[in-house]
């Protein structure tokens, strides 16, 4: 497959690339060279930028390419992970963790662990999360984006990887989170426009709206327990653990919340993100549901996206959709790079190597760290070149399952149960990788969501058991760190801002009811 872009397509695609780079450089010149400005955009983000950037960073090539491939081969259930995040992960962020992150003025998520437990817990999380970002967020996204460019334009995969990484790295390293957020808002618009164009073209080619209604009888969000990929038992632990980690304890997502103007903007931003999280997976899934009518025998499900672009789109729209793909890759990649540099600087460099570093030195280290992370991500992309038997999206979920059970256990028990101790949290964090590997070796045929769930609950039990056997944390140290009903309320000075239609709870209720309807209707 080799798509020859017309002049119009090439112009649209080129204008987008230049526009993103120019906007990123412009944003990088607006801020001051301080840690707070470089890593948290000066704490000035409004709700719509928070929600938009969360989803722009979240939706990437592993959705446009990977999730679309899963929907092609497995059907409507591919949307379960995305909508499940609204009910689990983003609810955990909104109602449990967000108040503590905002009210303590943290730069990073690991800072919460240090204040709750101690330095070792913070370092354990930082190490686990950096491995996750490099092996999953950065290298996998680069691979899937490069795979589509290779399929459509004939550019070699590794050449595409290097080009994508360097273009994104230029403005991300120069401008920090401010440049990331500014460019993500543009990328979100292009991504949605491109996705809608591809959806309309695919549905029309398949026979119109009737092509969608013909698939409704096969819509299932809850599958039998013996399903090899999406058993209903996944909701008992695997999906819960991955969703809570990804949405509520993940620097990649939470960093945007930490940069909010105030707690009202932070809460409203998460709720706005719920609406986008509902809409965009629909745009991605619908073309895949009707595509078997048009292309029933694709060699690889992950080739569906480039196939639809090549076969169905007219001149002009090809350039737009390709820009949408690159927008998804660049927004996700820039967010992951920025999160890595923030953790490396705030959680490793400053506490262990340069405690007295100036603001300028911290920012300078962050930029150098970003460059190194990009190089490592390029090198790790080769790990995905052999993962072709099943949709790569499933391998990404499996990789999350390797790292996340212990992290989710540390955070959930740490914030919900005051008896949790530093030793218990460390035990959970250190157990997650060896236990995950052991489960995969012993039970290779077990669905990875089930394996992940078993590891998650094992980490929870180990954390609780070790905590009960060790000295409890003094009550005075836990003040402001354990969840209670007061955590649900906005601070008194923000209550007036939350009246009527400006109440985040009202809008949260609407989207939650809608998602629950679909789960009940298509169970």
TrEMBL record:
Gene3D superfamilies in alphabetical order: Sodium/glucose cotransporter (1.20.1730.10)
TM helices/strands, residue ranges: 6-26, 47-71, 83-102, 123-146, 152-174, 186-212, 232-254, 275-292, 312-329, 365-385, 392-417, 423-442, 454-473, 505-522
InterPro entries (alphabetical): Na/Glc_symporter_sf, Na/solute_symporter
Keywords: Membrane, Transmembrane, Transmembrane helix
GO CC aspect terms: plasma membrane
Single GO molecular function: D-glucose:sodium symporter activity
Bilayer topology term: Multi-pass membrane protein
Domain of life assignment: Bacteria
Location relative to the cell: Membrane
PROSITE patterns: NA_SOLUT_SYMP_3
This protein's record includes keyword Nucleus: no
Family: Belongs to the sodium:solute symporter (SSF) (TC 2.A.21) family.
Name of protein: Sodium transporter
Lineage: Bacteria, Pseudomonadati, Bacteroidota, Chitinophagia, Chitinophagales
């Amino acid at each position: 497959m080799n798509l020859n872009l017309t002049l119009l397509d090439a112009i649209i695609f080129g204008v987008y690339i230049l526009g993103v780079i120019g906007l990123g450089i412009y944003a990088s010149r607006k801020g001051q060279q301080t840690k707070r400005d470089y890593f948290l955009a000066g704490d000035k983000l409004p709700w719509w930028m928070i929600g938009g950037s969360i989803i722009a960073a979240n939706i990437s090539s592993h959705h446009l390419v990977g999730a679309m491939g899963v929907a092609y081969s497995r059907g409507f259930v591919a949307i379960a992970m995305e909508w499940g995040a609204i009910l689990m992960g983003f609810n955990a962020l909104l109602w449990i963790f967000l108040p503590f992150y905002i009210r303590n003025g943290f730069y990073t998520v690991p800072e919460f662990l240090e204040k709750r437990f101690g330095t070792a817990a913070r370092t354990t999380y930082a190490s686990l999360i950096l491995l996750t970002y490099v092996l999953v967020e950065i290298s996998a996204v680069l691979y899937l984006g490069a795979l589509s460019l290779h399929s459509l334009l004939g550019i070699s995969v590794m050449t595409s990887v290097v080009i994508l990484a360097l273009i994104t790295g230029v403005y991300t390293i120069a401008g920090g989170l401010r440049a990331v957020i500014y460019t993500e808002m543009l990328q979100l618009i292009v991504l949605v426009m491109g996705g809608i164009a591809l959806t309309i073209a695919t549905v029309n080619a398949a026979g119109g709206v009737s092509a969608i209604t013909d698939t409704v009888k096969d819509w299932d969000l809850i599958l039998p327990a013996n399903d090899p990929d999406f058993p209903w038992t996944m909701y008992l632990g695997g999906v819960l653990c991955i969703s809570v980690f990804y949405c509520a304890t993940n620097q990649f997502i939470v960093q945007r919340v930490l940069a909010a103007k105030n707690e009202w903007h932070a809460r409203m931003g998460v709720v706005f993100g719920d609406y986008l999280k509902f809409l965009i997976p629909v745009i991605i899934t619908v073309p895949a549901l009707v595509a078997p009518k048009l292309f029933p025998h694709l060699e690889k499900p992950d080739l569906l996206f480039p196939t639809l672009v090549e076969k169905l789109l007219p001149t002009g729209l090809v350039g737009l959709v390709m820009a949408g793909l690159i927008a998804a890759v660049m927004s996700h990649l820039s967010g992951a790079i920025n999160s890595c540099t923030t953790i490396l600087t705030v959680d490793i460099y400053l506490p262990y190597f340069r405690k007295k570093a100036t603001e300028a030195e911290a920012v300078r280290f962050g930029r150098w760290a970003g460059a190194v992370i990009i190089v490592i991500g390029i090198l790790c992309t080769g790990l995905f070149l052999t993962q072709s038997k099943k949709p790569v999206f499933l391998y990404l979920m499996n990789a999350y399952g390797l790292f996340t059970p212990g992290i989710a256990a540390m955070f959930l028990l740490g914030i919900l149960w005051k008896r949790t101790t530093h030793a218990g949290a460390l035990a959970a964090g250190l157990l997650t990788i060896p236990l995950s590997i052991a489960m995969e070796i012993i039970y290779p045929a077990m669905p990875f969501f089930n394996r992940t769930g078993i590891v998650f609950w094992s980490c929870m039990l180990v954390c609780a058991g070790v905590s009960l056997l060790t000295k409890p944390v003094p009550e005075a140290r836990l003040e402001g760190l354990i969840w209670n009903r007061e955590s649900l309320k906005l601070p008194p000075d923000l209550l007036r801002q939350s009246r009527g239609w400006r109440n985040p709870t009202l809008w949260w209720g609407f989207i939650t009811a809608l998602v629950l309807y679909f789960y009940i209707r298509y169970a």
